[in-house]
From TrEMBL:
Its cofactor is Mg(2+). Pathway: Metabolic intermediate biosynthesis; chorismate biosynthesis; chorismate from D-erythrose 4-phosphate and phosphoenolpyruvate: step 5/7. The gene is aroK. Its EC number is 2.7.1.71. This is Shikimate kinase. Mg(2+) binds at S7.
Length: 157
């Protein structure tokens, strides 16, 4: 989900592991030469997801921590590709905590259908995150360092 700390934790994790860091939302913006919110406004949700699927399914990197947009879980091809090339980590956060962290979702480039609430989105995506995750880190009561430590412990297993 947006606001769980994917990019923040991802950058630190990459430094600790000596890996590169890539934010796939930035890859999408670079490929499309538009901001995420512009892509969503111009192409609609379905058009954005096609672009997101294509870009994420084409990522070909080694020794790289990749932070994806939360909506990538709707993209079967991309998720299967990401699981094939690496370890998928789901940063799980309780809805109430997540709600407090987030501001304007549209400005963040979050894909919401007309009339869909953050809670609807959370309830819809959670089973998908769990389906694709190789590692689940429940961030409840954890700070960034503790989240990072949990990821590292799970990667060592």
């Amino acid at each position: 989900m947006p606001g769980v700390g994917k990019s923040t934790v991802g950058v630190i994790l990459a430094k600790v592991l000596g890996y590169e860091f890539v934010d796939s939302d930035l890859l999408i913006q670079k490929a499309e030469k538009r901001l995420l919110r512009e892509i969503i406004a111009q192409e609609g949700q379905a058009g954005f997801l096609k672009i997101e699927n294509r870009v994420n399914a084409s990522i070909d990197m080694e020794k790289t921590v990749i932070a994806t947009g939360g909506s990538v879980v709707y993209c079967t091809e991309a998720m299967e590709h990401l699981k094939k090339i690496g370890t998928v980590v789901y940063l799980k956060l309780d809805y109430e905590i997540l709600k407090k962290r987030l501001g304007n979702l549209r400005c963040r480039g979050v894909v919401l259908r007309k009339g869909q609430t953050l809670k609807d989105l959370y309830d819809e995506r959670t089973p998908l995150y769990e389906k694709y995750a190789d590692i689940v880190v429940d961030e409840k009561n954890l700070n960034i360092e503790e989240t990072l430590q949990k990821i590292l412990e799970n990667l060592e297993k």
